[in-house]
């Protein structure tokens, strides 16, 4: 019985989706763009992908074309009124759990709940066997929503703009990961990597920032940097992922390369 239990756990783990929180405590650093593009890239490779919009700004939901999703969203699910099976939406090869503005109230409303940082984990568990990758787009703060994302994730992927002030946000998210590990919220959480966005290799400042982070976080910097590419912004405005909008764009190429590095890192872990 005991052996059977262990075996079934091993099988479940082997079949369990790699769950990646895309997080940064600063706003406008490329979290949503990275979640949507990486998720679409993985789906394009044939992986089963679920993306979760955990940000009340709803940028991922709208940016991927899920305009005014009718009915329940992550908000109602966190309150226990619906399951993820009931609210997930099918996109261009991937699924999405949509967000709504009401999610901004969840932080306060759920703050006194028992196990409040594991609500998302509880909702996701039944689905983890049905996907290869689950990507969670976090809001730009360390509230209950980000904590829920970190509690259920194997990895954190940190995008950051190539600017000096972004380094501070990187230190903060690194500290939060250590706290989540130390307080047994999720001892297995690992920093998957850091990716610089809106990178211009002709700029000395940008090359300096790349080198600084590479030295401070050995092995964590992705080789690929994401170039500034207007198609990435346009795609979100028209509500398409970058591969549907402009598959030949620099943005699509850079995120394809990021996907390859992500797959390498996860396979070699
Ligand atoms: N490589 C890029 N080239 C051009 N524009 C980009 C690029 N990456 C992101 N953007 C644009 O920059 C803005 C901020 O990006 P994004 O929304 O992904 O950041 P965020 O970290 O999710 O922000 P927030 O913290 O508000 O959720 C968006 O308008 C997006 O379209
Ligand atoms: Mg965002």
How would you explain this protein's 3D organization?
The chain has an eight-stranded mixed beta sheet, sandwiched between helices. The chain has 269 residues and is of the alpha/beta class. The protein has one domain: 3-Layer(aba) Sandwich (Rossmann fold), CATH 3.40.50.300. The mean pLDDT is 93. It has helices spanning 2-15, 31-44, 59-63, 74-78, 84-87, 103-109, 119-124, 144-152, 166-182, 204-216, 230-238, 242-245, 250-267; strands at 18-22, 49-53, 89-90, 94-97, 133-137, 155-161, 190-199, 226-227. The two termini are 30 Å apart. α2 crosses α13. A hairpin with a 3-residue loop joins β3 and β4 (94-97). The structure holds adenosine-5'-triphosphate and magnesium ion. Magnesium ion (MG) binds next to α2. Magnesium ion is lined by residues 31-32, 55, 57, 59, 137.
Concise overview:
The chain has helices at 2-15, 31-44, 59-63, 74-78, 84-87, 103-109, 119-124, 144-152, 166-182, 204-216, 230-238, 242-245, 250-267; strands at residues 18-22, 49-53, 89-90, 94-97, 133-137, 155-161, 190-199, 226-227.
The biggest sheet amounts to:
8 strands, mixed
- Identify the CATH homologous superfamily: P-loop containing nucleotide triphosphate hydrolases
SSE sequence, one letter per element? HEHEHHHEEHHEHEHEHEHHH
Query: What CATH architecture do you see?
Result: 3-Layer(aba) Sandwich
Strand order of the largest sheet: 3-4-2-5-1-6-7-8
Rough outline: globular
* Count of strand segments: 8
Uncertain segments of ≥5 residues (pLDDT<50)? none
Could you name the CATH class?
Alpha Beta
> Could you give the distance between the termini?
30 Å
Bound molecules: adenosine-5'-triphosphate, magnesium ion
Mean pLDDT: 93
Question: What fold name stands as the CATH topology?
Answer: Rossmann fold
- Structurally, the number of domains stands at 1
Name the structural class: alpha/beta
Beta-strand share of residues: 5-15%
Q: Radius of gyration over alpha carbons?
A: 18 Å
